[in-house]
Each structure stands twice: as C-alpha cells, then as structure tokens.
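REQUEST
  id: r-88c1
  op: predict_structure
  target: Ferrous iron transport protein A
  payload:
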Amino acid sequence: MATLRDIPIGGSAKVVKLSGEGAIKRHIMDMGITKGVDVHVRKVAPLGDPIEVTVRGYELSLRKSEAECVMVEANA
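RESPONSE
  id: r-88c1
  status: 200
  body:
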C-alpha cells in the first residue's frame, strides 16, 4: 500500500487508512484528512519536506513524517 509521500506532483489519491499515534494522527485528522477523502499533491519541496496538498478545497502543508502516516490508493 502506498503512502501520500509516494504520490507524484500533480497526482491525486484517495485516503484509505491513517496510521500513526497520538498527536501526529490527531493533527492529520484536524486538517481534514480522513478515510475516503481525495488528496491532490500540488508541490513538494526539493528535499521532500514539506509536501503541499489540496484537501476539500483547502491548501495544506504536510511534513514528510505526517505524509508517511497517510495510506492512499492512487486515483485512475
């Protein structure tokens, strides 16, 4: 199963599962990233941190460690 970090720039994916513990998982959910939501990757910094995404019409920045906790399924 792929993580949000594996999705290329300009790609979209559907969130399948959130892993992680405590504060990291809560932070991800507070941003509106939950199971079944479509996420579009807009930009990735040169060293891979942060990753800028669009979720539910909002532009968000995720740390590499947070993106690795979001399990996704690539949209066709």
